[in-house]
Write a structure and sequence with these properties.
- The structure is a single chain.
- The chain is 69% helix and 0% strand.
- By secondary structure, it is an all-alpha fold.
- The chain folds into 2 domains: 95 residues, Leucine-rich Repeat Variant (Alpha Horseshoe), CATH 1.25.10.90; 85 residues, Leucine-rich Repeat Variant, CATH 1.25.10.90.
- The protein is globular and about 50 Å long.
């Protein structure tokens, strides 16, 4: 497992985002997403390419380095750096396991809108659910949360599994019935 220079990677990402920013787009995105964070105005496909390029260059990154890097992006004042953290974790979904759930839960509780909640729940939490049935305990807890976004995460975390004929439909319907 390799340990890339996280500070250098972060500086490179921020320079790339800054150099490709579109202030007009940033203003529209901020308004549409009703986010309290700053925006660069970067298209999603551009960020997906950044995440894929990072994975290609860092295939053997260790879990701690990945979580350090994505944690720094997540703690940013920029909405798109948070989005990039999600996209990077998705690229390395094979690293995610039950031990990742507290971090994913924290990210969900800190999310301020559907775009981050949906990305975390449907791709990152789903990746853990696929590997470890114990992760369903988090969904049970989230389904009873006061936080609307946590209840949403409990509902949508299994969407990809359902498309494949997997998942726990009985659990899903118990959440949905209670939330109606």
């Amino acid at each position: 497992m390799s340990k890339p220079d996280i500070n250098k990677c972060l500086a490179t990402f921020r320079e790339t985002l800054s150099n490709n920013s579109d202030p007009e787009r940033a203003e529209k995105e901020k308004s549409y997403l009703k986010s309290p964070f700053k925006f660069f105005g970067i298209p999603v496909p551009f960020m997906e390419k950044m995440a894929k390029d990072f994975k290609r260059a860092n295939k053997d990154i260790d879990k701690n380095s990945l979580f350090d890097f994505t944690g720094r992006l997540w703690n940013s004042e920029y909405h798109q750096e948070k989005t990039l953290a999600i996209k990077l974790l998705r690229q390395f979904s094979e690293i995610l396991d039950f031990g990742s759930m507290p971090t994913l839960e924290r990210m969900l509780t800190e999310s301020t809108g559907w775009d981050h909640v949906d990305g975390i729940a449907t791709h990152l939490v789903e990746a853990v659910l696929r590997k470890d049935q114990k992760a369903y305990s988090y969904l049970r807890k989230w389904s009873k949360a006061d936080n609307f976004w946590m209840r949403r995460a409990a509902l949508i975390s299994q969407i990809v599994l359902f498309r494949e004929g997997k998942g726990d439909k009985k659990l899903f319907f118990s959440f949905a019935e209670r939330m109606i």
